[in-house]
From TrEMBL:
Record domain Dyp-type peroxidase C-terminal: where: 139-300
SUPFAM superfamilies documented for this protein: Dimeric alpha+beta barrel (SSF54909)
Protein name stated in the entry: Dyp-type peroxidase
Domain of life of the organism encoding this protein: Bacteria
One annotated GO molecular function: metal ion binding
Domain called Dyp-type peroxidase N-terminal: residue spans: 8-135
Keywords, sorted A to Z: Iron, Metal-binding, Oxidoreductase, Peroxidase
UniProt GO cellular component terms: cytosol
Family: Belongs to the DyP-type peroxidase family.
């Protein structure tokens, strides 16, 4: 299949990624809009410089960015602030970034080159609020030592889960939920293997899912495997990756979906728990300053921006 812009959402896991969180200068919004329109073209050009690197990139716009750029123009249907949550182990608030660039590839130099190209294309009409550079750890494990991404949708289901398929101007667009988690690894590593495995509801070394009846109600995979009222699974397409240095390590959680509501329901189930107060015990070993929701325009949508 020839490359398409939305491969940045749909393609399999990469071994390297960068997330650049940007703030828009409202006085230069026209420059920002012009740059947004050019992003698919700029990604294509950079791919030619790094032909074997599966270089991918896209931009997301938050409600804050949308208002700064387009004022009162109606927002994409489900673009809101990230709803606040408060639980015994974790609280969540909206982090008001305007834009995000999600860039990924098989090589750090390729990722860096595209990040630099896109950032410079904005010609100082944005400022960098935060950059998180990520890398593949072992066989796609989080720093807690567990394989991450196993239950992601596969094949055609990835598109069905991640891209809006209604016949409207939002066709092919997506929503991106981001949340940077910083782990307390000394606390985690002091736990016996059984406690760690119960925390996920999966085995560690060989990554086998527990039988449903054996999963504690506080297991991460129990709290995030949700169904709607018709019994259909709520799905998201995750592209989370580890980041860190020797003092501060964690997971940049990233998920795409045709609606942010699946992520919101999972996060509520993790943070606030069920009627009996069973919250996600993984949150006892990690912390986050908050979350951000972005609308991810298709190449067509970006092209039509005025
Ligand atoms: C499953 C790690 C946060 C949603 C998993 C798995 C791991 C993991 C290791 C099991 C393997 C698999 O990917 O299927 C983490 C870590 C997190 C984190 C380290 C943060 C510190 C989140 C958040 C959400 C989420 C914030 C959504 C709100 C899911 C879902 C699954 C999953 C939907 C698959 C459940 C299943 O069907 O079995 N996660 N995760 N995760 N996680 Fe997370």
């Amino acid at each position: 299949m020839p490359y398409q812009y939305e491969d940045a959402i749909l393609a399999e896991a990469s071994s390297d990624a960068s997330f650049l969180f940007l703030t828009v200068d409202p006085a230069q919004k026209q420059q920002v809009i012009e740059t947004l329109k050019n992003i698919p073209q700029l990604v294509s050009e950079q791919r030619q410089l790094f032909p074997d690197c599966e270089l991918l990139g896209l931009v997301g716009i938050s409600i804050h960015g949308w208002r700064a750029l387009f004022g009162d123009k109606p927002t994409p249907a489900e673009l809101t602030e990230q709803p606040s949550l408060k639980g015994p182990l974790l609280s969540v608030r909206d982090i008001p970034y305007d834009l995000v660039l999600h860039i990924r590839s098989l090589r750090r130099d390729a990722t860096h080159s595209l990040a630099l190209t896109l950032y410079r294309a904005f010609r100082q009409s944005v400022t960098l609020a935060q950059q998180t550079d990520c890398f593949k750890y072992l066989d796609n494990r989080d720093f807690t030592g567990f394989v991450d991404g196993t239950e992601n949708p596969v094949d055609d289901q990835r598109r069905k889960v991640a891209l809006i398929d209604q016949d409207s101007e939002l066709m092919g667009c997506s929503y991106l939920n981001l949340m940077e988690f910083v782990h307390n690894l000394p606390k985690w590593e002091a736990e016996p293997l059984k406690t760690q495995e119960d925390t996920y509801g999966r085995t560690k070394a060989d990554n086998i899912e527990y039988a449903s009846a054996d999963k504690p109600l506080t297991a991460h995979t129990k709290r995030t495997s949700l169904k709607d009222e018709n019994g259909n699974s709520l799905e998201i397409l995750r592209h989370s990756m580890p980041f860190g240095n020797v003092e501060r390590q964690g997971l940049m959680f990233a998920s795409y979906s045709k609606t942010p509501q699946h992520f919101n329901k999972m996060l509520r189930s993790m943070v606030e728990g069920d009627d009996q107060g069973n919250v996600d015990h993984l949150m006892a070993y990690t912390q986050s300053e908050g979350a951000s929701l972005f609308f991810v325009p298709s190449a067509n949508f970006l092209h039509r921006l005025a």
